[in-house]
Design brief:
With 591 residues, the protein is of the alpha/beta class. It has 25 helices and 16 strands. Strand 10, helix 19 and strand 11 form a beta-alpha-beta unit. InterPro entries: Aminoacid_DH-like_N_sf, Malic_enzyme_CS, Malic_N_dom, Malic_N_dom_sf, Malic_NAD-bd, Malic_OxRdtase, NAD(P)-bd_dom_sf.
Amino acid sequence: MESTLKELSNGESVLDIKDKCGVAGGVEDMYGEDRATEDQTITPWTFSVASGYSLLRDPHYNKGLAFTEAERDAHYLRGLLPPSVSSQQLQEKKVMHNLRQYQVPLQRYMAMMDLQERNERLFYKLLIDNVEELLPVVYTPTVGEACQKYGSIFRRPQGLFISLKEKGKILEVLKNWPEKSIHVIVVTDGERILGLGDLGCQGMGIPVGKLSLYTALGGVRPSVCLPITIDVGTNNQKLLDDEFYIGLKQKRATGQEYAELLEEFMSAVKQNYGEKVLIQFEDFANHNAFELLAKYRTTHLVFNDDIQGTASVVLAGLIASLKLLGGTLADHTFLFLGAGEAGTGIAELIALEITRKTSVPLEEARKKIWLVDSKGLIVSSRVESLQHFKKPWAHDHEPVKELIDAVKAIKPTVLIGTSGVGKTFTKEVVEAMASLNPKPLIMALSNPTSQAECTAEEAYTWSKGHAIFASGSPFDPVEFEGRTFVSGQANNAYVFPGFGLGIIMSGTIRVHDDMLLAASEALASEVTEDDYLKGRIYPPFTNIRKISAHIAAEVAGKAYELGLATRLPRPSDLVKYAESCMYTPLYRSYR
């Protein structure tokens, strides 16, 4: 991946960049809030000390009925609350009870967003303690429907909207955000939201959801997270005709106009927040995603979750699956359906890992990996018509149009779907994989659930229980011939929260591919024998905070090794340091 992007950016490498920012961490806690122990009191600052009605309306400090008798006296809350005093645990129990009454996932999503807007700590406490139940609510698959209907359910802004109207004034817009110390920005232009296509300004649900996971799963403080949507219009005619659409009602800007807006945005971010703010590109269309990553990776701290995050998570699953499949990565043959950001990103990281483990040249390692796009198998006879990011995967072979024929010709041991098109791993395809391999690995990664290449039940049934299956969105356990199969979820949420924490806590100034490989190996090492017995190649999300701390430590360690970390001296125990940096959502006592 580093080598591919290096070609697109005049041969520059992230290791060529010099740190011009000095020593400063990404975990500054100006008011001592996170350094305080749970029994120490803190002051609920806004622009002044919050009290009375304003305190109840401030989601950072509001505790609802959990304000103690002393706090109600000290902060003028008498009469503004019923007399009952609740614990945070009781509040959590009540909210979960209410959430479970909703039958429609979107209603649960809206209830969770309402909670986040009125009581931030309770929101994150709920999400951390019930992560496997609530992750599909605040993120995929429900967030996809939320984005589709964002105009109708929009209540109050949860991030910054930067449109073409703000061209020339983006720095001023950034200064309008109330938090001045920002360490992570997740930004989208809404052109390729999950597998749902162009949702324009309504793609804001993605940055909001991702940053909720940065906090809940990775422990990055919510106050240092900023969701941003860049609105350059939409080519979705349905949205342009929708009277409730909240974005610019015009066709997408492209070319120089688009590039100038992004250049102004990137410059303004660095000017306002400094060198070490992590900018995560999210759900940009292929043609922009690769160009933006190649253009800014040597000048900014940037990370594309669709290209790099997905690749790291999938590689972790592949490394873990070797205990079930046998052999090394170099012994296997990989076939992808889908050759966009995710497909080529995963393919490149697999090739890099093979190169690191075997010392074979990268070009040789790539020959173990084949990709199928909308026109069929990517082969050398098509090279002149291919987009630049597909060209490294054009190998010598006869043209093949259909996936089933590619399976029969290539004889892959691993089949990976990143097409964004549902039901493309047909019964014939899965049966062919099972006939070629005693344990075929099938990964249907497209989101949301409706766009998955096949379901867990289809994979296990059609392969007669022989398949090892993982997907992008969650599926329920499957009963087949007396066995219960629990499929793994190749969810980016395994990696990007811990990856981001590792970057922030080490003061890293650039992202390098070796850091992605370190994250993959750290995640793979968390899979237990019990997980393997159930057919899982990913650990359960119940342990995600511990996993994130381990990933953060490995990523930070690699950054120090590469000379990209600026927080000195290096902590002696990076895992303990990561855990000490993690935000905890327990209520604090107010003086």
